[in-house]
Design goal:
Strand content: 15-25%
Radius of gyration: 21 Å
Number of strands: 10
Strand order of the largest sheet: 2-1-3-10-4
Largest sheet: 5 strands, mixed
Shape: globular
Helix content: 40-55%
């Protein structure tokens, strides 16, 4: 009986979607990448579009380059994309520190590909350096500048966990050290799989770890994201990308998704990722509950 009760919210959500899936006329395909944050963004978007009378098909769980190609080729009509991913990976441009300037640049370049960018959110899935909240407070470290100052005054005291890529790329740790004028030292950087870095930090095997700003483990392990006060890490802001023909046909999609973009940020996204990744809740339930709690949908 207990398991049945847990399934009831999900069954209600499925009924809501299926009841609206037969709406004639307006139809779009929403794409998504293969990680939790993207599943949630795609599901939220689908709920809002269905509420406005669209039939929504979803193509989720795709690799970044695969779903990007699908968008360009018209197999996917729209998706949430990250400004840094588009600018650096797809377009081969240099990173731009200012989020709005980066957004305008990808919008300009992608117009040549028939892709329209809109509704950039405060969700920033960029690299970050994190510490245990208690230790950071004890040492008076709130920003990467604070970390640099502490390491320069106490060489060899703090260690870091990093994956091999971040530890060796110019836009990773070496660039951070150059920008903030400090150095961990080769013996102080412990390289491991990215999935283990924050666990190692939580287990007090290291003092600093690389992370992504919206990682659920930041919430789970009570970590603090050090402020990137020199704006070294390029912005990876989540924004809506849509095929220009689809945008022209359904201009109302911009207004529908703008309400979502205006109300999301990295802290909220981290919490939603936590509910799925750590607490094991369904993506659909997490997305639906948040939309109801924040006035986007009326609870059925």
């Amino acid at each position: 009986m207990g398991n049945l009760l847990k399934l009831i919210p999900l069954l209600i959500i499925m009924l809501i979607l299926s009841a609206c899936s037969g709406v004639a006329g307006k139809e779009v395909t929403v794409g998504g990448k293969n990680f939790t944050e993207q599943y949630i963004l795609s599901e939220m978007t689908a709920f809002l579009l269905v509420e406005e009378g669209f039939k929504v098909n979803q193509m989720n769980n795709l690799g970044s380059s695969v779903v990007r190609s699908a968008l360009v080729n018209g197999q996917v009509d729209m998706m949430w994309e990250y400004t840094g991913t588009a600018l650096i990976t797809y377009m081969g441009e240099e990173s731009i520190a200012d989020p709005e300037a980066a957004f305008q640049k990808v919008k300009e370049i992608d117009s040549e590909n028939g892709i329209h960018w809109m509704n950039m959110s405060e969700v920033n899935n960029t690299y970050a350096l994190v510490m245990r909240s208690e230790q950071a407070s004890e040492l008076g470290i709130e920003s990467i500048s604070d970390l640099a100052g502490y390491i320069n005054e106490n060489p060899g005291e703090l260690s870091m966990a990093s994956d091999a890529e971040f530890a060796n790329r110019s836009d990773g740790l070496p660039g951070v050290e150059d920008t903030y004028d400090f150095e961990f030292g080769s013996g102080q950087v412990n390289q491991m799989d990215l999935g283990l870095t924050q666990r190692s930090l939580n287990n007090e095997q290291v003092d600093v770890s690389v992370a992504f700003e919206t990682d659920a483990t930041i919430r789970s392990y009570d970590l603090i994201v050090l402020e990137d006060d020199e704006q070294f890490f390029p912005p990876y802001r989540a924004a809506v990308t849509i095929n220009e023909d689809v945008h022209e046909e359904y201009p109302e999609i911009e207004e529908i998704t703008s309400r979502l973009a205006e109300n999301l940020n990295s802290d909220i996204m981290r919490e939603l990722n936590y509910l799925v990744d750590v607490e094991g809740q369904s993506v659909s339930v997490v997305a639906y509950d948040w939309l109801v709690e924040n006035g986007f949908l009326e609870e059925e």
